[in-house]
Request: fold
Amino acid sequence: MKKKEGDYKFLEVPSAQSHISFVNKLEHQEDFNIIDYLYYYNGGGVSIGDINNDGLFDIYFSSNEGSNKLYLNKGSFSFEDITESAGVASLGKWKTGINMVDVNGDNLLDLYVCRVSGYKGLVGHNELYLNNGDLTFTESSVKYGLDFNGFSTQSSFFDMDKDGDLDLYLLNHAVHTQKSHGRADLRLDVDQLSGDRIFENIGGYFEDITSTTGIYSSQIGYGLGIGLSDFNEDGFTDLYISNDFSENDYLYINNGDKTFTERLTDMAHHSSRFSMGNDIADYNNDGRVDIITLDMLPEDEVVRKRSVGEDPYEIFRMKLQFGYMNQYSRNTLMLNRGGKFSDVAMLAGIHATDWSWGPLFADFNNDGWKDIFISNGIARRPNDLDYIDFISGDKVRNNPNLSDAAFVSEMPLGKVKNYFFSNNQDLTFENVTESWSNADAQITNGAAYADLDNDRDLDLVLNNLNEEADILENLSLREGVDHEGSNFLKLRFFGAEGAPVFGTRVTAFVGEQIQMYELFSVRGFQSSTTNEIIMGLGVSNQIDSLLIEWPNGSVERQGAIQANQFLKLWMPAKKQPAKKQSKPHVKKKIFQEVTTSLGIDYKHQENRFVEFNREPLIPHMNSQEGPAICVGDVNGDGQDDFFIGGARGQPAHLYLQRASGFKLAITFEEDKILEDVDAAFFDVENDGDLDLLVVTGGNEFDKNSPNELSRIYLNDGKGSFEKANDMLPNLYETGSVVAVHDVNNDGFLDIFIGRVAVPWHYGRSPKSHLLLNKAGQKFEVTKIGDANFLEGGMIKDALWADIDNNGEKDLILAAMWQPIKVCFANEGLLASPVSISEDQGWWQTVKALDYDQDGDLDLLVGNLGLNSKLQATHEAPLRMYLNDFDDNGQQDPILTYHKGGVESIFVSKKDLSKQLPGIKKEFLDYKTYAEAPMEQLFSKDLLNGGEVLVANELRSGVFENNEGQFTFKAFDLKAQVSMIRDMLLVDINDDGRIDVFAAGNFFGSSIAEGRYSEDYGTVLLNTSEGWEVASSMAMGLYLEGQIVQMEPIMIAEKRAFIVVRNDDVLSIYGNQYFFKKNID
Reply:
């Protein structure tokens, strides 16, 4: 049934009513177009403010080739075009970002216009239109030192040094030249046209002080977005700069002395690759600001497969070596974890919105949670792969006189709907584009929000390319609609003399909830908004208190305020410091790192073997599973020692504990060619000391290579070890885990060695083995069920625990593409594995714990998580098709996922062609390939003729054991931000219940998939009502990197734990209060 207009949240106000007929129109010109200027289609901006102080917000549009337009708000969505009489047309090409701000402190909003000049015949300079107070303006940029000539994108006026006047950060962009490409230290250069600038307001004149501020001002800064916030809450305004192409985004911390320090690589793990506009706000109501940055990843699968994607693996790594940070071609949503950020865009469901320009955080439905609007679309797609083939093809080489119009016509059209996302209040968003707006696909660049009709909800103004600008009326509070759940508080901020004030931070305390807003005008893309906040309160009838932190340093606190009011607030004339109300962050840090004080200096160094060069279609590598770690008293002195393994080419180390810390006792040089992925101390011979078993992995060598063999080292009782060459049978394949237990009750400990991969054959189930200890003399393969080996899948973890309460420990297996399986033990024999559920995951770790205290063991399991391009459910699973698709004798793994209800191949045509060259001949262009259904690429018989692996559950969680029947319950979404690879079971809060500290991350995935890097460690408190996620960072833990394993250890009779990372340092954390109790 077709929706009626009244069913939508936003409706376009007809131009016949609004009298806004502005069009940012571009007509093709042979001497200046997208071929000549790469940002030709970036469009114009929107600025909203009250230029005549009548309480109604007016609108200013920028035009690339025509006249800018200023519209005076007459009320009821009726506007008057006063451009000509006001004198603000800004004639000539090429206007970009615009801003309304009181530059000269006369309590009237002025207009600042950014332009592109000094390139391809473009002339002019940035313009400052001073408000005369009579609806006319005077261009005064030269007088104020603001007549910059170059490639300006947007201006942001803010009080940099808290001296009471506004300074300027001028965001500029670059164009491609010979100086645009190279190492990251190019950012230290200075470019007069492209580099960003900072101007200090000195007595009303703006002086360029860029060279002393510490910001970058180079030709590789392709600045497209600027956001302002006080990230570190020190009272000074910091900056976030979005840069297109290879250069990093910048996160500048204001040092308070007119200098800035760039900190993004310290505070985040990656950024968008083609960063566009950004916005900054607290979207999850925890009192900390979060960051959204846009890119160009299409949601539509056909468009995605036709578009340029991620860099090839080797180019990606080369950029890292050149000094750039990890960047991915997708939107990022940086969740503030307390000084560091986690990108949760994929978890939130907002990572792919196509060619996106401006994001806006705003509470559009007044429920107390900020939603997202994203402006979208491009006239032509220059990143289309067929277009790229065209410009490098014979037609172009053989016809040097082709017109620019001929080139442009080969680019596909790029109209896309603007996106609306409604905040689900759990870190995620719902795509409500279709239900909130009836607008068609279009090209919207700049956008801004404001309450244009003073009905207490936020409307939207859109600057569209080649179409009339749109005014979208928010109908949330329209007459005749139930307003329950849409309470609000409307706040407008002024200086003592009545000038609009920006830079204010407002925190509202509403019951157990907090809302925090920062009032800065520049948001999104090339646009700016008003000095007003509309704070949605949902069903709350009042706020309990309001904390206002003014830009001059004054702090005010107001008590209870009834909802549904419009309040005007004036900044105190002088600084009036007051004690801030504490925010609900965890206060007590109960962890501390003690590694350095213990004399340990160890870093795992992964060798640079790249499996993607051998198997280009695999989703991730299996060669980066180390290092191994195990803990035990090896020399009988009553103190814990530890073994830490190495990667190929790096020897393993044994550290012995001493009174002053640890001493490196043994370096296993003779076996450094081997990759150590797991290890265990146990008494092989029953001679009273701990021997050592090390599992070899690496997935690098072909079958029957001695470099795949695991090994045993026997202890002489004093902590010296000798390799026992003939004790283990020669079992070749890539190992992953060892689990030790006396299976047959003969008094000697047996071992299970799990394996994760068969080299050259991703997805094929390797052979894992149970080895019986023959009186300490040797180990022999024994049966699991009816076989001498177990094909249990790509096993990542194994655990012995008595699941069925029969007094014998069973073998529990966690594997990729499998359900959790159990080999039940009975009278010293192991049965064949059985699945405990139909939930097939990418399981990484399993722990047994009676968390609900009902007398049986439940299973805690770590999985991929939900912060991934790869999503799976029982109805729409991931699949891996294993077959020889091109009949060349080699198994080909084809990964598929579901988008929009349709199964689709995940990898690009280019990557697919690396392993299946026939694809190039069958599909001569990308368009045909992208539009082809699965059955046209591969027949059903071929797809189903081999093995098909399935994953339908990617969340980490717990399998609750109810009399042998297991039910999966996922952890909270806060515990799904990355892969969980290990869990430490410990009573964190000393309440008698065993809690969980989980950690992980994984960097060995394909570039198209992206690194899983966003976890800092997750604390799961075991409560009577289930698992409660607590902040590990607030407890003193920022566990970055690839956490492979965590092991408890006693140090000087105090409990601690070791954290080992792949290709990174080993760390030890401890705290006497925290480690009063723990379990194995």
Remarks:
- The longest strand covers residues 810-823.
- The radius of gyration is 31 Å.
